[in-house]
Write a structure and sequence with these properties.
The strands form three sheets. Strands 1-11-6-9-5-2-3-4 form an eight-stranded mixed beta sheet, sandwiched between helices. Strand 3 (about 65-75), helix 3 (about 80-85) and strand 4 (about 95-100) form a beta-alpha-beta unit. The longest helix is centred in the last third of the chain and has 28 residues, at about 310-340. Helix content is about 50%, strand content about 15%. It has helices at about 20-30, 50-60, 80-85, 105-115, 125-140, 155-165, 190-210, 210-215, 230-235, 245-255, 285-305, 310-340, 345-370, 380-385, 390-405; strands at about 10-15, 35-45, 65-75, 95-100, 145, 175-180, 185, 185-190, 230, 240, 265-270, 375. It is of the alpha/beta class and about 400 residues long. It has a single domain (about 10-405), classed as Spore Coat Polysaccharide Biosynthesis Protein SpsA, Chain A, CATH 3.90.550. Helix 11 (about 285-305) packs across helix 13. InterPro entries: Nucleotide-diphossugar_trans (IPR029044). It comes from Marinobacter segnicrescens. This is Glucosyl-3-phosphoglycerate synthase.
Length: about 400
């Protein structure tokens, strides 16, 4: 049971009464008459072969208020795309599947590349960016939710609570971030958020001093949640990072573009579990090692754009301060786990903190050595300025793919 305490400078919408999902859906159905709603599902083809997405599809079949579902499909050949079209064909909503590896969308990508506007690397950020571009261009919805396709504990009330704050016309929120406790199999998960992001933000506050941006980021209960919702107008000027800094980057962009009273977070699940990444301490190109590097770089870049002067000496201080705070957090989480009858591996937690501390310094050095690094994908307003017809071409490409490969 959540409490009603408001922490930080971002409004928190709690789950106080366990309101039945049918009540929420009746309201959302009313809202949809004036504010149509859509859902973005960024997916790897491999997720069609796992247990999580099958349950998500079954739950979505019962959702009455969605006008559009857009699935971004990555790493799929033609046969796999045909299978995906059949896989999602049972959904009663207006469904479009973007074949990101297909010739038509590759041709769109090549046009962007010729203008220096294409996403720099494959991944979730690129997938989400194309899905958002399609939704913006098609103009069918006004409120959009996004969640991952690997949620093992998914139920449709997660979606209802996630989209409600931006769908309710009496609310003024432009963006809503979902949050939840990361508990599964009697253990506490969410290591990157618990042991990297929060202690790093606290360390940055100590070293850099009071900063509105740091207070804002520290207000989110689960800043790395892959679930958020927004109004369609937000997409136009939203710059999405193409790496693991997606969630941090989106939060930073919302802070840049909107006042904090237009941003909120909502409790969307009592129990949340999805696939877990390996720590990968010996390979910085994958797993939690790459994720932590990208997140640190995203935070450092944002501080620099806000006028913070960063140096090697400052990064050394940040690393040392982070390490001490993170170790203190381990004891806090261990005690929290014990009082709730959960297990926590102290050795595993400290190994993660040691790797994160090393990556804080590595990310700092990378930032200093690559001052012109530009990981953000250009906004769709910039694309429309450089290539006025491209968004129409994107809609046509998606429509043709969905027509030609329909089951």
């Amino acid at each position: 049971m959540g409490d009603f305490y408001q922490n930080g400078i971002v409004t928190t919408l709690h789950n106080l009464t366990r309101r039945p999902v049918e009540d929420l859906e009746r309201e959302l159905l009313t809202f949809s008459k004036t504010r149509p709603m859509g859902l973005v599902l960024p997916s790897l083809y491999s997720e069609l072969e796992g247990p999580a997405l099958a349950n998500i599809v079954e739950e979505l079949k019962a959702v009455p208020y969605l006008d559009q579902i857009v699935i971004g499909l990555d790493r799929a050949d033609e046969g796999q795309y045909r299978h995906a079209m059949e896989y999602f064909s049972g959904l009663p909503q207006n469904v479009k599947v973007l074949w990101n590896d297909g010739p038509r969308l590759k041709a769109i990508d090549e046009k962007l590349r010729e203008q220096g506007l294409a996403p720099s690397e494959m991944g979730k950020g690129r997938n989400v960016w194309f899905c958002f571009g399609y939704m913006l261009a098609s103009g069918q919805v006004k409120s959009i939710a996004l969640h991952d396709c690997d949620i093992l504990t998914y139920s449709r009330d997660l979606l209802a609570r996630l989209i409600y704050p931006v769908a309710n016309p009496s609310f003024n929120y432009m963006f809503c971030k979902g949050y939840y406790a990361r508990i599964s199999d009697s253990s506490m998960n969410g290591r990157v958020s618990r042991l990297l992001v929060t202690p790093l933000l606290r360390a940055l506050k100590k070293v850099c001093g009071q900063r509105d941006f740091l207070d804002y980021m520290d207000s989110f209960r689960y800043p790395l949640a892959g679930e958020f919702s927004l109004r369609r107008d937000v997409i136009t000027d939203l710059r999405i990072p193409s790496d693991w800094g997606l969630e941090i980057g989106v939060l930073s962009e919302m802070r840049r573009n909107y006042a904090t009273n237009r941003i909120c977070q909502v409790d969307i699940a009592d129990n949340y579990d999805h696939k877990h990444q390996d720590l990968s301490p010996d390979d910085a190109s994958k797993g939690l090692s790459k994720m932590s590097l990208d997140i640190c770089k995203a935070l450092f870049r944002k501080l620099a754009t806000n006028g913070e002067v960063l140096s090697t000496e400052e990064f050394r201080t940040i690393k040392a301060t982070y390490y001490r705070i993170a170790l203190d957090f381990i004891e806090t989480y261990q005690n929290d786990a014990l009082i709730n009858g959960l297990t926590i591996d102290r050795h595993r937690e400290e190994k993660a903190v040691e790797m994160f501390a090393s990556n804080v310094m590595d990310a700092g050095n990378y930032f200093l050595e690559n001052p012109m690094d530009a990981p953000f994908i250009p906004s769709w307003s910039r694309v429309a300025s450089a290539l006025p017809n491209l968004m129409d071409e994107l809609v046509e490409a998606v429509e043709l793919d969905n027509r030609d490969f329909a089951p």
